[in-house]
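request received
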Amino acid sequence: MSEYQPEIDPTEALRAAFRRHASGVSVITLTSAEGKPVGFTATSMTSLGANPPLASFNVASGSSTWPSLCQATHVAIHTLGQRNLALAQRMAADHTQRFTPSDWSFGAHGLPILQDATAVMICSIREIHNVDSNAVVIVNILEGLTGQEDDALLYYNRRYMSPGRALN
Amino acid sequence: MSEYQPEIDPTEALRAAFRRHASGVSVITLTSAEGKPVGFTATSMTSLGANPPLASFNVASGSSTWPSLCQATHVAIHTLGQRNLALAQRMAADHTQRFTPSDWSFGAHGLPILQDATAVMICSIREIHNVDSNAVVIVNILEGLTGQEDDALLYYNRRYMSPGRALN
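response:
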């Protein structure tokens, strides 16, 4: 097809495609074996069906959170709005600086619950599938916390963004 | 935390969270055992690492495309821009009406390649993990086609949307 340029390098093909693809942003938290709060910003979190309610997310097995995830039984998935931009940035930066003393508390199943997300899903870890140096994590949703509404936080073309106009 | 309302029904908790979460939109195509083009609109497609380049997407095992996916070896993942709104809607509607005679052709590995997507990733199916009545599909990216740029197509709060302003 004449309108396409071929890209034979598969890593470059992935990069070109994902620069053109937008994602919602969430923060996933859990408790380390030492009882400390750990977490990270994820752009891969997605639904895996509503009945029973399941979600999935992807994580690099070299990430700072990976050792805790391997021994954890539960995670909290926080969906973010544009008011949570600083939280998304902090949870993607230096892993020793991700939790401030004042913006979270321990909740159900000992999970660190961050303040002011648009929603929280309390989940049990069901399956972890290792795929090379990454993993797909599948969780059961057990219950939730519904927060104040806000425009969803997006990640697109290496920037955080808000949604624009409705097309339909 | 006082700003949250508890939601004890897990399916309602999932629905409330995903109404607040935005997704990018892609169309995934493959060839049926009879050699016909089949495909569907996906909001779950995401990267699973760049080295090696991998992606994942979720699909209901009751969907019209599921029997073809179970016997297929390859898929084409098309990332969509806002110019592709009608394509996204058609590929989510009546499965007998998804391919028009003029807007696609067979490409690498016999895959149906749709015209005018923002990018296409040509993929081999690596793993399929069944999870209740859904499945997680993991693919290797083999090569790509880079299309004309466009604002990414989003799905958010049951509407298709374009991205808005950058926040950082």
